[in-house]
Amino acid sequence: MARKLKWQFILASTGAVLIVLGIVLFLINHMNYRSVNRSQFQVIEYIAEIGGEIPEGFHMEETPLEIVFGDEAPYRFRYFTVWIDHEGNMTDSNTEHVYYVTEELAEEFAKKALARGRRKGSAVRGGNHYVYECFPQDKGTMCIFLDSTQEFWQLRRIRQYSLMFGLSMLLLFVSIVYAISGTVVEPVARTIESQKEFITNAGHELKTPIAVISANAEVLEMINGESEWTTSIINQVKRLSGLVNDLVLMAKMDEETRPELTRMDMSTAVKDAELAFRTVVEQYGKTMKSEIEPEVFVMATDRELPALVNNLLDNAVKYCDDGGEVQVVLKKKGRETGAVLTVTNSYAEGASVDTQKFFDRFYREDGSHSQQKSGYGIGLSMVRSIVRAYRGRITAQWKDGIMSFTVTLN
Predict the structure, then answer these.
(1) Residue 235, Cα to own-chain centre: how many angstroms?
(2) How many CB atoms lie within 10 A of CB 50?
(3) Same fold, 2-155 and 262-409
(4) Within a 10 A sphere around the Cβ of 182, how many other Cβ atoms?
């Protein structure tokens, strides 16, 4: 149990930190990208304002580019400009501020940009990365391409460094959590172990007085005859004995060491339970329907599998509406092993019920611990424990007056 809690604590902590780190690193890189991208288009837009070319010796006093990039702004930018007429032909170009882009290549860039139908975008050629923006004019369109290779290379480096930093911090955190996890979960594990030990010991200790009370009640019946008092005593003894047995079984199911699972015929277990409960259902004026596929096998134990099916059916019968219907459906999940068991019952008052609470120990939907409905509220909790031990899944759902429990086993 301690080992299981330790790894649950480590996984939960690591998952939380991983989510936070991922969000933080994503926001940092995204904001950095937007900032760089915004500054690049700011340059393009300013070049467009002055006609598509920065004249030699042009001084940008108090301009946005001078404020952002300094006095050397006119000499820092590598760009080229292409003018395309309304017929799609290049009328002019300016490639003096780039080294390897020819007029033919500039025309190709511009026509591809216009063919995309987007005013802004990016283009890659060889090892160079460009951002561009096209500006409609009276005689056609002016497209300005700005070389952003250095900026995007820096963005990639920042992403790499941030990823390395995130992984380093995650590994450091996992190491710290692993080192302290034993100390953190030890009190909880010790408490859980003490509770299970108490339940097991108390269960064994209670069996003797329960057996004595039952025997005394039977002797009284033999001497004085059956009465309402002896009948009540015997019924309560059976109820208490069942509760003790279930509590001990649940405590054993929570243990880290599990019994070896074997391939079992679930079809037989469901049929036996369905036949046993059919008489009870009909006595109370309700109906039961079943659809059980033959030769449905699962990996289970001969003690817990019947308990799983019986508790599901017992709950369905117990809370089925008067004159309602209980339905049992068993289908194959895989070719060799695996099953999907669905148990439903009519339940008109289930709209406002929190179905997840059904699996809490000692939870009674009727809001009391009266004996109007037999049982003590641990049947579904036991079912969930068995399903988890088998690495399966159980769900509860209410819809259109029908309460359904679905169990999926491997």
Answers:
(1) 45
(2) 12
(3) no
(4) 14
Q: What is the C-alpha separation between 350 and 319, in angstroms, rounded?
A: 10
Angle at 27 between CA 26 and CA 31, to 5 degrees: 120
CB atoms within 10 A of CB 261: 16
Query: What are the strands, taking DSSP E only, across 276-366?
Result: 287-292, 297-300, 325-332, 339-346
Number of C-beta neighbours around residue 48 at 10 A? 18
Strands (E) across 228-286 are located at 262-265
How far is the C-alpha of 126 from the C-alpha of 140, rounded, in Å?
A: 29
Per CATH, the number for 262-409 is: 3.30.565.10
At 337, list the tokens. 């092993």
pLDDT at 391 over 90: no
pLDDT digits (tens, 9 = 90+) for 73-107: 666 788 999 999 999 999 999 998 888 889 999 99
What radius of gyration, in Å, describes the C-alpha atoms of the chain? 37
Which CATH architecture does the domain made up of 2-155 adopt? 2-Layer Sandwich (3.30)
User: What is the DSSP-derived secondary structure letter of residue 20?
Assistant: H
Cβ(115)–Cβ(138) below 8 Å: no
Q: Report yes or no: 246 and 238 within 8 Å, Cβ to Cβ.
A: no
What is the C-alpha separation between 324 and 406, in angstroms, rounded?
Answer: 19
Mean pLDDT of 391-399: 91
Predicted local confidence at residue 74, as pLDDT: 60
Contact 46, 65 (CB under 8 A): yes
Report the distance separating Cα 245 and Cα 211, nearest Å: 13
Residue-wise pLDDT tens digits, 285-303: 899 999 999 999 999 988 8
Phi then psi dihedrals of residue 58, to 5 deg: -70, 130
Q: What letter represents residue 280's amino acid? A: V
The domains of the chain are located at: 2-155, 262-409
pTM as predicted: 0.53
Indicate the pairing of strand 140-147 with strand 128-137: antiparallel
The span from the CA of 146 to the CA of 82, in Å, is 12
Mean pLDDT over 265-279 rounds to 91
Nearest to 146 by CA among 198, 201, 189, 109: 109
Neighbours of 156 (CB within 10 A): 10
Q: In this structure, what token pair is assigned to residue 314? A: 């017992």
The three-state secondary structure class of 385 is helix
The two most distant CA atoms of the chain are separated, in Å, by 123
